[in-house]
Design a protein that fits this description.
By secondary structure, the chain is of the alpha+beta class. It has one domain. The protein contains four helices and two strands. Strands 1-2 form a two-stranded antiparallel sheet. The longest helix is centred in the last third of the chain and has 17 residues. The radius of gyration is 14 Å and the shape is globular.
């Protein structure tokens, strides 16, 4: 996956980058950020949450953190714009 300079800079700052893959809205984050988020959620809810539950919580957290902001829409069609 190729990222723009702005996307690469966001990733290096530990921020998420919204992308659309075959019509599905996704988010790209650094592995260490993801692992830390999962670890933090497990510590807050020991034994209570499955991996699927944790992924849903993480997805909702990213939605709540403005990655759905209309200004981010430019990234939704990034792959189509390159063609």
């Amino acid at each position: 996956m190729k990222l723009t300079k702005e996307q690469s800079e966001a990733i290096s700052r530990g921020e998420e980058v919204p992308v659309k893959i075959e019509g599905t809205e996704c988010v790209v984050i650094r592995r260490d950020v993801y692992v830390q988020a999962i670890k933090t959620m497990r510590e807050a809810h020991p034994g209570d949450l499955s991996e699927a539950d944790l992924r849903q919580i993480l997805a909702r957290a990213y939605e709540a953190s403005d990655w759905n902001d209309p200004e981010m829409d430019i990234y939704n069609d990034y792959d189509n714009a390159k063609k």
